[in-house]
Design a protein that fits this description.
The structure holds 2 protein chains of 2 kinds. Chain A is of the alpha/beta class. Helices cover 38% and strands 15% of the residues of chain A. Chain A contains 17 helices and 14 strands. The radius of gyration of chain A is 25 Å and the shape is elongated. The relative contact order of chain A is 0.14. Chain B folds into 2 domains: 8-205 and 336-393, Crotonobetainyl-coa:carnitine coa-transferase, domain 1 (Rossmann fold, 3-Layer(aba) Sandwich), CATH 3.40.50; 235-319, 2-Layer Sandwich (formyl-coa transferase, domain 3). Chain B is α/β, with parallel strands linked by helices. The relative contact order of chain B is 0.14. The chains are: A alpha/beta, B alpha/beta. At the A-B interface, strand 3, helix 2, helix 6, helix 7 and strand 8 of A face helix 2, helix 6, helix 7, strand 6 and helix 8 of B.
Chain lengths: 392, 399
């Protein structure tokens, strides 16, 4: 049977909430043995963020697939020693607490690399360790706000708009975090040495905006908010159709533009020199767009969908979850699937983002908190607990 | 110096997604050969604005690469590509979905030439199912993946994320794919194909919202589900920029201080503001209703002053910045993320470094993006093509 890419790699996972756990979930999906350490009692705060299913939050279920769950009270010396033992036998130690917290808890890079010189010590925090905001905690919405991303989103002529789904920046950070850890693993393969890896939510949010920040770097001005439209390619926006539904159209090359004009039977537009290049279409968008609007409103979405598909012009509908959950394409590609979360029931889950031709990936349920404490202790060769006492 | 030091990547793709993935590889030390059609990567035409004829978007996505013009619609172009693949480690392919397979330059064909090859295939929707050959752009993917449902007002024109999330997040997943396949190859000697797609990337990242709509969920309330129906969130207006804020509940003294400092004296006895502001702030039930009262309290202060008061009193507040404010702010300075590139035509321009720092790996270089076809001759010569063969490949005009 095929192995995962990270088969044989162990992760000592002290992450919480979403940024860290989703990253370690992706590592576990690639086959790493991720040991999630939680404090007794409340443990990872994500457990209590509604909505819940069978008394567990769906957020915890989604962010902790594939992991083993260990409960340890790190204020208790013997249990802290167990955590050190896990770190010593791990390839990666990973945390996403506020800057300085891991150090204060006794889990600094200096300490862990003494125990294990090959350890990759990976930290993510919101704003970085220095600067006026270093000490402030941060979550997805505050990083959205501060990173400029709301300023480039919103109705034309309207105010900057925050994204109401407050996980995209978290999971973007997780994604860059995974890429950073993979680079460290490669380096270690070549040099035999571990290292410290640092990622911030702010740096990740900015990198996500690379293609938009570019315009600011060129002009000194934040690009304008354009509703569904796109600053640097035209036409690339939603058009209202006859039945009051919208179609999304994306033309980014001059070939696509000519094919669009043919598909919507607009030869005058096709031969208008002002519109024959992208820069021309961008420059003259105020003349061009109203003419396209007048055409699209004359027929329903389905009419244009057939025409544009036949012409190879990118287009799409404004789907909702109801359209997506059992869509044949989504099902064929496993992009939304049903996770059997054991005692917590069945939960819809987003699919993994990659498909490997040789290596296996996994999408198994999250642990019940502390489910694997005894198992891990036994593997480490530590005495099992007396009945009724900590840990486990 | 970097994880991909000594690795040769052939990048075949235009726009934002494949080029950003190629740039991440280049920043990690790879030699990146950017294969462009004779009209050039369409991102070279993204604008206005242009800087001395160069597109700023193109400039920010294509540093540290070599440009090789090949017409992959012709047999000769594809044969030349195969010669390059022979000595390459990685191919990033983001051509029209199905094109590579149909024309003998997909993974199955290329692995015959180089069995250790790592092939990253990027497609709009994924390789199976009814949309496997449907083309897409950033907006059409945002629309199809329900991304626009967290913006705007139901019944009004759709609003997209201004950030190019479908392109950029997919590029990062692609980079993860390359890195992990390379790690696997270091351990086993095996190459393989990795497939990522824009639609799947966004569906994956919106996953906690799918989970929130599972059968058996106890209520619609939750920090995800009501996002569909809430009005647009513009933050709280102040005398200057709007702000985002939350208050940590449980500290009654801090909460009273906040209300007093903003001179919101009526709020102190207003039951809507009770219980440490649970209902009156953040995602609270009444937050929308009492927002004008907060905004009246903030109106005479700047965003920085409002944030200072809240942060000092057990809360978390930041301005909702624009790029002018953000790139002048000391925190942006502190994370040291802006670098400079010097381009022969566009002059000096700013770029963002990648968001990671490694204790043992120095940062890479910042060479300017190449002119169209700048390295065609040099690269094809090294790959063993004769001068005659090279000139047969190039059209009469250069790009």
């Amino acid at each position: 049977m095929a192995k995962g890419i990270l088969d044989g790699i162990r992760v000592c996972d002290m992450t919480l909430a979403a940024v860290g756990p989703w990253a370690t979930m992706l590592l576990a999906s690639m086959g790493a043995d991720v040991i999630k350490i939680e404090a007794p009692g409340m443990g990872d705060i994500s457990r209590f963020v509604p909505p819940m299913v069978n008394k567990m939050s769906v957020l915890y279920i989604a962010c902790n697939m594939n992991k083993r769950g260990v409960t340890l009270d790190l204020k208790h010396p013997r249990e802290r020693d167990i955590a050190y033992k896990i770190a010593e036998k791990s390839d990666i130690f990973i945390e996403n607490m506020r800057s300085g917290t891991a150090d204060r808890m006794g889990f600094s890079y200096e300490q862990l690399s003494k125990l294990n010189p090959r350890i990759i010590y990976a930290s993510a925090n919101a704003w970085g360790s220095t600067g006026p905001m270093g000490p402030i905690s941060g979550a997805d919405p505050s990083v959205q706000a501060f990173s400029g991303w709301a300023s480039i989103t919103g109705a034309p002529g309207g105010k900057p708009e925050m994204y109401r789904y407050v996980a995209h920046i978290d999971l973007t950070t997780s994604s860059y975090f995974v890429a950073a850890v993979l680079q460290a693993l490669i380096e270690r393969e070549k040099t035999g040495k571990g290292m410290k890896v640092d990622v911030t939510m702010l740096g990740s949010a900015l990198n996500l905006q690379t293609s938009r920040v570019a315009e600011f770097f060129a002009t000194g001005k934040t690009p304008p908010r354009l509703g569904s439209a796109t600053a640097a390619t035209v036409p690339h926006q939603a058009f209202l159709c006859q039945e009051g539904q919208w179609i999304a159209v994306g033309v980014v090359t001059d070939d696509q533009w000519q094919r669009l004009c043919k598909a919507i039977e607009a030869p005058a537009l096709a031969s208008d020199e002002r519109f024959s290049t992208n820069p021309g279409r961008v420059q003259n968008r105020d003349e061009l767009i109203p003419r396209l609007e007048k055409i699209f409103i004359t027929k329903p979405v389905r009419w244009w969908e057939i025409k544009l598909d036949a012409a190879g012009v990118p287009n799409g509908r404004f789907y909702d979850f109801h359209n997506l959950r059992y869509h044949p394409h989504v099902a064929a590609n496993g992009q939304i699937f049903d996770l059997d979360a054991g005692s917590y029931g069945h939960v819809n889950m987003g699919g993994l983002p990659w498909n490997f031709s040789k290596s296996a990936t996994r999408s198994d349920r999250n642990p019940v908190p502390g489910e694997h404490t005894q198992q891990v202790l036994q593997e480490l060769g530590l005495a099992p607990a007396q009945p009724g006492s900590r840990p486990g | 110096m970097g994880a991909l030091d000594g690795v040769r990547v052939i990048e075949i793709g235009e726009g934002i997604c494949a080029p950003y993935c190629g740039q991440l590889c280049a920043d990690a030390g790879a030699e990146v050969l950017k294969v462009e059609p004779s009209r050039g990567d369409w991102a070279r035409q993204m604008g206005p604005p242009f800087v001395n004829g160069e597109s700023p978007v193109f400039l920010c996505l294509n540093r540290n690469k070599k440009s090789v013009v090949l017409n992959l619609e012709t047999g000769e172009g594809r044969e030349a590509l195969k010669k390059l693949v022979k000595d390459a480690d990685v191919v990033i392919e983001d051509l029209a979905p199905g094109f590579a397979e149909d024309n003998g330059i997909g993974y199955d064909a290329l692995r015959q030439i180089n069995d250790k090859l790592i092939y990253l295939g990027i497609s709009p929707y994924g390789e199976k199912g009814p949309y496997a050959r449907k083309p897409a752009t950033e907006l059409t993917i945002q629309a199809m993946s329900e991304y626009t449902a967290s913006l705007g007002v139901i019944g009004e024109p759709p609003v997209r994320l201004g950030t190019d999330v479908a392109d950029t997040n997919t590029a990062v997943f692609g980079f993860q794919g390359i890195l992990s396949a390379y790690f696997h190859r270091l351990r086993t000697g095996e190459g393989q194909k990795v497939a990522v797609n824009m639609f799947g990337s966004l569906l994956s990242m919106r996953g906690t919202l799918w989970s929130a709509q599972s059968d058996g969920i106890e209520s619609w309330y939750g920090f995800h589900c009501d996002s569909y129906v809430k009005p647009p969130d513009h933050g709280y207006q102040t005398g200057t920029l709007p702000v985002y804020f939350t208050l940590r509940r449980g500290n009654e003294e801090a909460y009273s201080t906040v209300l007093i400092e903003f001179e919101m004296f009526d709020a102190i006895n207003d039951p809507r503001f009770g219980e440490g502001g649970r209902d009156a702030t953040g995602t609270g039930r009444l937050a929308h209703e009492v927002k004008p009262i907060w905004e009246a309290g903030f109106a005479s202060k700047t965003a920085d002053e409002v944030c200072e008061i809240i942060n000092r009193n057990d809360g978390e507040a930041v301005p909702i910045t624009d790029y002018e404010y953000l790139f002048a702010h000391p925190q942006t300075e502190a994370i040291d993320i802006v670098r400079q590139v010097d381009h022969p035509k566009a002059g000096k321009f700013r770029v963002l470094r990648t968001p990671w720092k490694f204790s043992e790996v120095p940062e890479g270089k910042y060479e300017p993006p190449p002119a169209l076809g700048q390295h065609t001759e040099e690269v094809l010569r090294k790959a063993g093509l004769s001068a005659q063969e090279i000139s047969r490949l190039s059209p009469a005009r250069k790009g």
